[in-house]
Amino acid sequence: MIKVAINGFGRIGRLAFRAGIVADDIEIVAINAPDKTPAQLAYTVKYDSVHGRFQGTVEYDDNSITVNGKRVAVVGNRNPAELPWGELGVEYVLECTGAFLTTEKAQAHLDAGAQVVVLSGPSKDDTPMFVCGVNLDKYTPDIKVVSNASCTTNCLAPMAKALN
Fold first, then answer.
1. How does residue 96 score in pLDDT terms, banded at 50, 70 and 90?
2. How far apart are the C-alpha atoms of 85 and 62, rounded to whole Å?
3. Which residues participate in catalysis according to the annotation?
4. With helix as H, strand as E and coil as C, how does the chain read?
5. Higher pLDDT, 77 or 157
6. Count of structural domains, the chain
7. pLDDT tens readout for residues 142-152
8. Which of 14, 30, 128, 160 could hold 5 in an S-S bridge, CB 3.0 to 4.6 Å?
């Protein structure tokens, strides 16, 4: 089971959370959302205007939310280098703020103890971008910051590869 933290709880962060919290091989250990309380995060997990009501239990306390009996720490720090990724045992950080889209900026998550950072959008430098079904076979474990490219790229690249 891999341990994941989510930095940023907008649309992408929430959808990643909804998918990860019900997966058997993923443990979401923390959410960093500086401007949100656990009560607000619990509400946004439970009610989604596009995907509907979450089919499970959602509770919260002062420092966490608990979804389907799984406790997830809630932290609120704008500086990724100060996040408790090491003490929480975070292996992967899903960088979903849109603010840290270069390897240099994402390095702060690694400095805080994470092992790999996955950017949820296209990078603004030469950070490697990977698209499932297109070039995922090029990934090697020594790459510590990766980009998932853009939604447009994820939609069109598999077709372009097939046509090529």
1. very high
2. 19
3. 151
4. CEEEEEECCCHHHHHHHHHHHCCCCEEEEEEECCCCCHHHHHHHHHEECCCEECCCCEEECCCEEEECCEEEEEECCCCHHHCCHHHHCCCEEEECCCCCCCHHHHHHHHHCCCCEEEECCCCCCCCCECCCCCCHHHCCCCCCEEECCCHHHHHHHHHHHHHC
5. 77
6. 1
7. 999 999 988 87
8. 30
